[in-house]
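Appendix B. Extra example for self-study. Work through it before the problem class; the solution is given directly after the inputs so you can check yourself.
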Amino acid sequence: MRFISVKNITKRYGNVFALENINFEVKEGEIFGIVGPNGAGKSTLIKILTMAIKPDEGEVLIYGSDFKNRKKVAKKLGIVFQETTLDVILTVRENLFFHAILFGFSSSISKNLIKNLASFFNFENYLNMKISELSGGTRRKVEIARALLHSPKVLVMDEPTLGLDIESRNQLWSYIKELNKKNGMTIILTSHYLEEISLCDRVLVLDSGKMRFLGSSKEFIKNFYGKV
Amino acid sequence: MEKFKITILQIIIISYREFLKWWRNKFKVITTVIQPFIWTIFFGLGLGKIVNINEIARAINYQGEISYLLFIFPGMISTTVIFISFNFGHSFVEEKERGFLRPLILSPTPDWVIVLGKILSAGFIGALQGLIVNLLGFIYFKEISITFLTFPALLVLGILTATLGIFLGLFFKKAGSYDILLFYVIIPAILLSGAYFPVELTPLWMIRLAQFNPFYYGVETVKKVFVFSLSLEKDFSNLKELIITKGIGIFEGALYTFMFIAFFFVLINVIIKNKSLD
Ligand SMILES: Nc1ncnc2c1ncn2[C@@H]1O[C@H](COP(=O)(O)OP(=O)(O)O)[C@@H](O)[C@H]1O
Ligand SMILES: [Mg+2]
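Solution. Structure tokens for the complete assembly:
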């Protein structure tokens, strides 16, 4: 069965084409990067890909499910949007616990899952703190931990490294590599840092809503930087 | 069975989350309780001097002593519940606007469970604040009544309002624009619910209009509960007869209200199925 396919996606906001005729497939087990400058349409593509919004034209299929059947594949996706969707007035533990219940776990299993993730991401000491009291880097970690709570097959992240210092960025990338290598998790992420391209297996380069390149990151680097 | 238990847990958790968010915002909790109390004093003691209470008593078929304050107090409490529960529609649009609904909508939890959880919490919080105002009124003006039926009646009204709020919220992109509804829909609907004057005293076309006003039934239920409580306080020995005579009216009001709730609840779920909430 086709894994993730994006077919002829077009999305307009007023007169602006946020996305125009986008086509690609993601392969199981790869790190797939969506790269482009600000306003390129990356976030719009992530929202459509995760079925948060409907495109004007075209369709997304995940394990054969379309927008109408998005609940069927919800468990397969872990999603981190660009803007935080954590409740800042609630604690880390509450945010994670509510999410686990939404994904159908019993309350005792949920507590275990939270314990494991907190130790994997090293934020056990912050579990009882409100999100509003955390640093940007820790918030990101919690947000990613939440997306991983239900052990998704695919992790989708919109600009996960945005606003992080070099150290946190490197740390995050090591997590990403580990999830990909050890658990065989497919990773889809966006970035506007060109240097992160080399960390992906394949990339889609977007500009002004249009596809500029689709292929392996090695190929991209050879074509665009090779001569340097 | 396991699935059923999880669904119940999910409804509780979604409600509880809303409740926590409200509870941690102490400023909001306190101000929303105080406001209607001030209104009541001004309305009840101010307007009470100029309205013809005998005419009102006749219109609502009430035998016995009644003051305007006593007449509008259930209306005041209903207004509190309606304002507060309706405001959750504002939060709903805001969550939509800022993408906070996405983690809910993109979870495997069925949409109806999410909607139900939100509606229940919004109704519950509205009713709770209404109850607090009722208690304050009970302490301050000795004539105000309160019984075991008060909270359920307020809850039904709160749930009705929250359902309408979320239904209307579906059509707004900006939380700021949603607030316009307060002046164009909610306040007119409250005025035409019998909260401040009996609808029976208005022109025929207004009476007809009121029959399509969901708040009319919700507020009516609350008012009937107050009359029931009053009669109960006066004569406790007649409980059985009271339940038969007054109880039926309460049940009828609640039933009509539930029909509106069910109608809009189904409508919300039909709309959500095919719409992107962004
Ligand atoms: N909700 C929206 N309303 C109007 N325009 C939008 C909306 N979301 C995105 N856009 C526009 O679509 C284009 C792509 O935006 P976006 O997908 O956020 O880009 P990126 O994530 O690559 O920075 C931009 O021109 C942006 O202004
Ligand atoms: Mg973006």
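Self-check: Residues A 13, 16, 18, 36, 38-44 surround adenosine-5'-diphosphate (ligand 1) (CB under 6 Å). If your reasoning did not lead you there, revisit section 3.
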